[in-house]
Amino acid sequence: MSIDLTMDFSVNKQNNTITVKKAFDAELPLVWRAYTDSEILDQWWAPKPWKARTKSMDFREGGRWLYAMVGPNGEEHWSVADYLKIEDQKSFTATDGFTDSEGKINKEMPQSKWDTDFKGVEDHTVVTFHITYPELKDLEATIAMGFKEGLTLAAQGLDEYFASLKK
Length: 167
Hints:
Blueprint: E1 8-12, E2 17-24, H1 28-36, H2 38-44, E3 51-57, E4 64-70, E5 76-87, E6 91-99, E7 111-121, E8 124-132, H3 136-144, H4 147-165
Antiparallel strand pairs: 1-2, 2-8, 3-4, 4-5, 5-6, 6-7, 7-8
C-alpha cells in the first residue's frame, strides 16, 4: 500500500475550522515524540529560515508550551499551547494563542483550539489537526498571516528530520 505524504489543508468558513492531514514516513512513537518533545519541536516547528525556540514546555494536561518563532534577523513572535487533554500516542487538545515573552495572551491576535490526532498506518503515521476559531475573523486573519504556507514549510522540515534519522 502506498501512503500519500502530501499535506491536505481544508478550510470550512461556516464552522470557523481548518483541517490539516499529513502522513509522515515514520512510525507512531517517533512522530508522537516529534510533536511532544521541545528539543525536537525546536528543530522543525518553524518554517525555514525561521527557527522555533522553546522557553518552557510542560507536556501534560494543564501544562503549557511557551515558544518563540525567531526570524533570520532575530525578530521574535511568541506563542503558547495550553494542553487540555492528552491520550498518549493517540491525541492531544490544546488552546493556542499569540503571547508576549512571558506567556501573556495577546487578545488582539487570533486564538484557536487544536485537536491533534495521531494514527499509525503500517510504518507511517497520519497526523490530523482540527483547528477551531471562535470567530470567522480569527480564521481569516490566521490564513492572511500565511498559516497554510508556514505549516507546509514546517511539515517539510519534519519530513527532513525523519529522513535524516534514516541515514
